[in-house]
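To illustrate the input format used throughout this study, we show a single complete record. The first block contains the structure-token representation of the backbone; no residue identities are included at this stage. The design step must infer an amino acid for every position from geometry alone.
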């Protein structure tokens, strides 16, 4: 809904050019290398775009190096998610099962499933589309595996 008593504006069709998408800034988890080493661009995400019910982005994860893995750590969120691999190779873990994927692979990740991925190439960037059935990326709450234990430990320490 818009302001009280008025309906929210309806979504409308539109097209984003490659130039517009290329100009979208790359985001990340505030440079938290324990969570992810790459980043993403939000392509369709309310309120930045006049969309509803669908959130779409493109992820970029650099090749791994001898001293640095390229990954997004195991995590969960309530929304289902999909990946469509555009380039690169990855190992994707979904609920404890490893999947080796490359260009053209499509993945469905049910809501609340634990998942994460690792770029397995030392020469090629991993690039994939991702999406959620929600209005905007702000609606997706990531819960990283291990964070719950760290948060519980912090709460116990502060209570003592």
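Output of the design step:
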């Amino acid at each position: 809904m818009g302001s009280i008593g008025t309906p929210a504006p309806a979504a409308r069709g539109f097209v984003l050019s490659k130039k517009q998408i290329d100009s979208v800034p790359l985001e990340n988890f505030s440079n938290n290398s324990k969570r992810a080493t790459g980043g993403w661009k939000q392509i369709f995400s309310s309120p930045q775009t006049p969309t509803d019910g669908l959130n779409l982005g493109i992820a970029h994860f650099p090749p791994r190096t001898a001293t640095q893995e390229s990954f997004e750590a195991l995590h969960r969120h309530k929304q289902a998610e999909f990946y469509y691999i555009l380039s690169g190779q990855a190992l994707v873990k979904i609920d404890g099962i490893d999947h080796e994927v490359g260009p053209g692979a499509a993945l469905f990740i049910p809501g609340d499933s634990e998942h994460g991925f690792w770029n397995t190439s030392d020469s090629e960037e991993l690039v994939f589309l991702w999406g959620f059935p929600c209005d905007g990326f702000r609606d997706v709450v990531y819960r990283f595996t291990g964070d719950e234990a760290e948060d519980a430990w912090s709460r116990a320490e502060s209570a003592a």
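Structural context for interpreting the output: Residues 106 and 159 are 46 Å apart (CA to CA). The two ends are 44 Å apart (CA to CA).
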